[in-house]
Each structure stands twice: as structure tokens, then as C-alpha cells.
């Protein structure tokens, strides 16, 4: 099976992290969020993958190498225009598309099956959310046929609580409904045309975990969910003390006070005397925490340097080279375990 990962976006809501790196390379626990996606796809039989690139393209391409095919966009083509550019990659196969910043454990095979069963031209993955005002939501009838959309509606005016996850399956005929220009957006340009022409397309509702790692708040929540096992994703490490997962099995915590877990510690970390960790805390590979520092609800991306006696609460810490400090794919292969 074939699938496309959308990885060309600018990641404006993740600034300042995306000044230095593309959004798909921002890590959740021990690997870029896009690596979680690629692993999920491959585990479910999607052996042919393609991704579009634009912002910091070389960082993504050099990390994943020939594991995917690449489609570079000198100018952004939009969420749908980028897919049309690689239409020959899919040929007559279903066009499966997933966002490069989606942290999820859904079964994409079920999405493809739903698409085949309905016989529609498009199938959109949706999930019920408590606050529709934060999402683009999808209106459908009792059979799941889509009848309309609302973009971040006021809760009093929301007609549905089904958020679009940005994970789709299309029939190749979908490209017949594109406008004659290069930049094309699914929500603004293609889906309204399907509605206007009474073309059937449907929802695929999921109960699986899904989080759009599109903002700092969502990055924090997705990391905590992965750490706690609410998102069933792979990670390295084993428990070396109650509530403490470490990638270095011989890591010594002498002189370090873990007030509460969970705490995840990557490879090559240095933790000074008298440090206090109040979970949840994530220390990426190569992080250095100076003596006497106190961290609470803090994420330190790989290679971070935390000064002695610092007090960090609800913080995300990163240097401008955190992508260079990420563990390579070869270090992740065969060593990952599922969060529990």
C-alpha cells in the first residue's frame, strides 16, 4: 500500500522552534513526530511512502534518507496541490494522506476499508472533540455522508463536534475536481466543489488517539500523552526507578530527587547534584541539567543546556541545533518499545 506524508508546512504556530527546524522534525519523546508517523504506516503495511518538502527540506530528507520518496515544492502548493503533484506515485491505488505533524495510533487500514465500502470519492478521518471552536468540523448525515463544514465555530453555533483530523483517503478521480491553478487547498478549493456537485464523500470516525502537534500547547500535551501511554507510540528506554524511564540503563540518579513521575530521560544526559524533577518531565538525548536546578512539567529537547539553580515550570527548552542532536533512525530501529 502507498501513502503520502504532508511535510511542507511552515509550522508558524510552533515558533520559535520552527525558526530552526521543520515542524515534522520536532520530537515527541525520543524521535521526530514524523518518525512516529512513518513507523505507524510501515507497521500497517504501507511500504511505499512519499512526502512533500519545502521549509528546511534538507533536515527532513537527510534524516529519513531513502526510506521515502520526496517531492520538493520551491513554492508551497497547498494541502491539496502538493498531493496532486505526486498523483503519478499513486497511479490507480487509493490516495492515502496524513499530516506530518499528526501524533496518532489509528488504524489506517480501517480508513482504506471504509473508503472502499462507501464507494465515495473521498473519506475524511474525524474524531469527536469537546470544544469544536478549536477545529475545522465536519457535518454529515446518519450514513456518514458529508453535507457541510464549519471552521472553528462558536460552541453555540456548532452543528457537530466531529473534528477533521487531516487524514484522508481519496479515489484517483478526486483530481478531476481541482481548479486549474497550482495552489490548491482541500477545505477551501476541493471539498466545496464536491458539495456543489453533489459528489458523495464520507467520514471515518475514530476513537483512536489523535493530536495535531501544531502548537506549543499541543506539543506539550502530545508529549505527556505519549509518556503516560494515552498515545500508543513507540519509545526507547526502560524503568530504572519508580516512574523513571531511561535510555541509558546504567544511568545513576545519585543526588537527584525525583519528587514525582513520570520522567523520561534520553541517552547521554548529564544531571547535576541536587536536581529536583517533578513530573511529567522529558529530557531529550544529550541534555545537561546543572546542579541544583528544579524542573516541573518541563520538556527539554535534545542537546538542551539548563543552567545550575534554574527553576523551570511548564517550560519547553531547546537550543537552535536540537534537530542535529536527535538520535538517528538507526539508533531507534529494533530498540523501541511501546509506551505503557
What would you note in describing this structure?
By secondary structure, the chain is α/β, with parallel strands linked by helices. It has two domains: 2-216, Spore Coat Polysaccharide Biosynthesis Protein SpsA, Chain A (Alpha-Beta Complex); 236-338, UDP N-Acetylglucosamine Acyltransferase, domain 1 (3 Solenoid). 22% of the residues lie in helices and 31% in strands. The chain has helices at 17-20, 33-43, 57-64, 78-85, 87-90, 108-118, 186-196, 216-228, 329-332; strands spanning 2-6, 27-28, 31-32, 48-53, 69-72, 95-99, 102-104, 122-128, 136-140, 146-151, 162-170, 202-205, 210-212, 234-235, 238-241, 244-246, 257-260, 263-265, 270-271, 276-283, 288-289, 294-300, 305-306, 311-313, 316-317, 337-338. The strands form seven sheets. Strands 15, 16, 17, 18, 20, 22, 24 and 25 form an eight-stranded mixed β-sheet that branches. It has a seven-stranded mixed β-sheet with strand order 5-4-1-6-11-8-12, with helices on both faces. A three-stranded parallel β-sheet has the order 19-21-23, with no helix packed on it. A hairpin with a 2-residue loop joins strand 2 (27-28) and strand 3 (31-32). The longest helix is centred in the middle third of the chain and has 13 residues, at 216-228. The two termini are 29 Å apart. Residues 334-340 have low confidence and may be disordered.
Write the layout of secondary structure elements.
Elements: E1 2-6, H1 17-20, E2 27-28, E3 31-32, H2 33-43, E4 48-53, H3 57-64, E5 69-72, H4 78-85, H5 87-90, E6 95-99, E7 102-104, H6 108-118, E8 122-128, E9 136-140, E10 146-151, E11 162-170, H7 186-196, E12 202-205, E13 210-212, H8 216-228, E14 234-235, E15 238-241, E16 244-246, E17 257-260, E18 263-265, E19 270-271, E20 276-283, E21 288-289, E22 294-300, E23 305-306, E24 311-313, E25 316-317, H9 329-332, E26 337-338
Parallel strand pairs: 1-4, 1-6, 4-5, 8-12, 16-18, 17-20, 18-20, 19-21, 20-22, 21-23, 22-24, 22-25
Antiparallel strand pairs: 2-3, 6-11, 7-13, 8-11, 9-10, 14-26, 15-16
